UniProtKB/TrEMBL annotation:
Superkingdom per UniProt: Bacteria
Name listed for the protein in its UniProt record: Aldehyde dehydrogenase
Family: Belongs to the aldehyde dehydrogenase family.
InterPro entries hit by this protein: Ald_DH/histidinol_DH, Ald_DH_C, Ald_DH_CS_CYS, Ald_DH_CS_GLU, Ald_DH_N, Aldehyde_DH_dom
Organism: Pseudophaeobacter arcticus
Keyword tags: Oxidoreductase
Active-site residue numbers: E181
Domain Aldehyde dehydrogenase: 1-406
Gene3D superfamilies: Aldehyde Dehydrogenase, Chain A, domain 1, Aldehyde Dehydrogenase, Chain A, domain 2
Length: 411
């Protein structure tokens, strides 16, 4: 696993370019998030695997009770297109570390880096058949993996609709455990006492617009205290309009392309819905750079979004930020928790007590305070509610890929 990490690092630029040509993520982000993060993930689990041991249970004295952790066997992994190498590594590395073999299905529009990873693994000495990449459509190849009697655990990142199908397939086949990491509609909450509104605007803009909003934890629902609403929205608008969008391989661009024409059409359909419901598009809202033949969308901010609007409730997975005003902390909590999702959140405040109260009150897998985004391998990533039931990363992810076996030995 260390050799695999070394090799990913050595090939980082090539892997990042390969991935960008597949999915359109801006190069700088791809370099850090894809090979950069994947190499770190292999290293983290390489270091972790010999720290995991079984247990001796405190049974009665004439019995020895041992709890073994055993590999589950075959892990099926299904991943999306937004960060294939990073998310693939989040599943592959802990599964391998616990002694399993893996069959991974990449998304239709982004498979090249994972195919290269499979070659790297073999070149680094992983036995044939331990890590397998099977390309194909979700409806056919993905469904076959989900229905397979030979797959013991399914680990998935993608949309809630597909997650539901995987649970059904599990019920109809061998009751394989399904770990689901699904979408989000994450609130980013700015209080009037935020320590630095300018910084909050800059970080919040990147928290929604990087990778054209195609980030599961994107802070896509801005909730702003009325006392700073107009000032903050103006700062944010300036940040959005200053972002350079274009060819993802041009290092001067901060935002790359939308993954596909289909995704772009979907993003734009939300603009029609938002306008019809009374939302005000204060910047963006349209396709740009059409003359290049690429799929680009301008960073978009929609104000006057109410809690029953589609833009408040549904994940766009595009560069679209909804803005809603609140008056009190209680109202902020109520708005934050008013969707079916529970993936991530942000809170901007100088009041430490309030920060802790918000962390406790918001239903989410991660709450960022005075920043948005940011994480490393030591902390888990996963959601609650309809954002999923499984965690990638950290030592907790190892538990997904083991079974517990008791040895009860009469002495
Ligand atoms: P998707 O569910 O359409 O596809 C994800 C994967 O599932 C792809 O490989 C696809 O081919 C496969 N698939 C589709 N239908 C299938 C079926 N019937 N059976 C088996 N496999 C099937 O999602 P997407 O559009 O590729 O990705 C975007 C979604 O992923 C967003 O909702 C986003 O929030 C979510 N996401 C979540 C996380 C997280 O960590 N929670 C991270 C990244 C993305």
């Amino acid at each position: 696993m260390h050799r695999i990490a070394d090799r990913i690092e050595a090939e980082a630029v090539e892997l990042a370019v390969l991935g960008v040509r597949d999915n359109g993520t801006e190069f700088n982000m791809a370099l850090k998030a894809e090979p950069g993060s994947a190499a770190g993930t292999f290293r983290y689990y390489a270091e972790a695997l010999d720290k995991v041991a079984g247990e001796v249970a405190p049974t009665q004295p004439d019995v020895l009770g041992l709890v073994h952790r055993t590999p589950v066997g075959v892990v099926g992994a299904i991943v999306p297109w937004n960060f294939p190498l990073m998310i693939g590594a989040w599943k592959l590395a802990p599964a391998l570390a616990m002694g399993n073999s893996v069959v991974l299905k990449p998304a239709e529009t982004a498979s090249l880096t994972l195919l290269r990873l499979a070659q790297i693994c073999v070149e680094c000495g992983l036995p044939d058949g331990v890590f397998n990449v099977v390309t194909g459509s979700g409806a056919e190849t993905g469904a076959a993996l989900a229905m397979s009697m030979g797959v013991d655990v399914l680990t998935f990142t993608g949309s809630g609709g597909t997650g539901r199908k995987l649970l059904e397939a599990s019920a109809r086949s061998n009751l394989k455990r399904c770990y689901l990491e699904l979408g989000g509609k994450s609130p980013n909450i700015v209080f009037g006492d935020a320590p630095d509104l300018q910084k909050a605007a800059r970080v919040s803009a990147m928290g929604i617009f990087r990778n054209s909003g195609q980030v599961c934890v994107a802070g896509s629902r801005l909730l702003v205290e009325a006392s700073v609403h107009d000032e903050f929205v103006a700062l944010l608008k300036a940040e959005a309009e200053a972002l350079r969008v274009g060819d993802p391989l041009d290092l001067g661009n901060q935002i790359g392309a939308v993954n596909s024409e289909e995704q772009l059409r979907r993003n734009l359909s939300f603009m029609d819905m938002a306008r019809a419901e009374g939302g005000q598009v204060i910047t963006g809202g349209a396709r740009i750079l059409a003359e290049t033949g690429g799929s680009y969308m301008a960073p978009t901010i929609v104000t006057h979004v109410a809690r029953d609007h589609a833009l408040f409730q549904r994940e766009v997975f595009g560069p679209v930020l909804s803005v809603t005003k609140f008056e009190t902390e209680a109202e902020a909590v109520s708005l934050a928790n008013a969707t079916d999702f529970g993936l991530a959140a942000g809170v901007w405040t100088a009041d430490l007590s309030r920060a802790h109260r918000m962390v406790a009150a918001i239903r989410a897998g991660v709450v960022h305070v005075n920043t948005y985004g940011g994480a490393d391998n030591t902390v888990p990533l996963g959601g609650v509610g309809q954002s999923g039931n499984g965690h990638d990363k950290s030592l907790h992810a190892l538990d997904k890929y083991v079974d517990l076996k008791t040895a009860w030995i009469q002495l």
